[in-house]
Here is the input.
Amino acid sequence: MKVYTTTFNVKTKSRVEIVDVTDDVVGAVRESDVETGLVNVHSRHTTAAVIVNEPETGLLNDIVSVLSDLIPEGAGYEHDRIDNNADSHLRAILLGNSVTLPVVGGEPDLGTWQSVLLVELDGPRTRTLRVTVIGE
Ligand code: ZN
Here is the structure.
């Protein structure tokens, strides 16, 4: 069994932004030389998330809008007394900080409409994602 790990950086431009990182993940899986196994994509941050979904512009706007409805900015959170980004942490917890996908034929086994998306929730910042591939 092989274990391969690497990181890549994403520079975000807005406070809340969704970035398609599928190409970076596919690139890491190809580099790993793993044909069959699993790939994990992990956000090393408390105010960014990783999800799998469709990067259609209207849907991306809907995700941002629903997050802001569910967890509005500045709604009296205790953490806002420390660094004023409680909504970012809470939204990140809701979405999750990693995804794991099957690797089949040397590629992440994504469906036709699926992409790996980094959800920036307290940008703009430079984010680091770690990709770990295991298998053979
Ligand atoms: Zn904070």
